[in-house]
Amino acid sequence: MRRIFLSACLAVLAASAAARAQECDRSDDSQQMMNICAGEDYQAADARLNAAYQALIGSDDADGRKLLQAAQRAWIAFRDAECSHSTAASAGGSIHAMEVSQCLTRLTNDRIKQLAASANCEEGDANCASPGADESGEVQ
Length: 140
What we know:
Number of helices: 4
CATH architecture: Up-down Bundle
Distance between the termini: 33 Å
Shape: elongated
Strand content: under 5%
Radius of gyration: 17 Å
Structural class: mainly alpha
Order of helices and strands: HHHH
CATH topology: Substrate Binding Domain Of Dnak, Chain:A, Domain 2
Largest sheet: none
């Protein structure tokens, strides 16, 4: 499983290297360009995630920072495993790098929303533990 994920990461990195050599052109619908654009989308989402994480970790006390760091590390492991699993069917295909990048982007954007909601929580607000939950605690 780790080898598959490592291969996927290398494919994404290779697409990222190609992206540096060639910028995303959304009017070009070739698979190579779609891979480049998906890689750029993920890089942008990752930068936003890092900014949201840094803002939140800077506002926590020492215990809160430790808990957030552990949660973030666990979330990264989950995200990577989930994307490895959900894109396994395309492994070895030209679409695989795009699918991995799209999965990483989607889950990263979801995490950004979670961190933003946590940043706006008031102490003792049980609904803050589940961003997107209504007052009854059910996820929308």
